[in-house]
Acyl carrier protein
Amino acid sequence: MSNTAKEQILDFVRGRYPQAEIDETQDIFALGFVNSLFAMELVMFVEKTFGVTIPNEELKIDNFRTANAMAELVARLSPTLAVA
């Protein structure tokens, strides 16, 4: 079971693409794994899973390119969560 935000995000992405080996630093947009629907699913997953609301100014592609970037976003929005 995943404990950190980064692990939970990676589990979510890997669950969508089980055939791919995706690590925390890989740009899932550049790899072609993200379309507009999956981008919205990522936003909804992050908000629901971590109990945060992503403000419009944080809805930037750079905040969602990698599991690291998404975990950093979660940490900024909810500093009490484990990110490592």
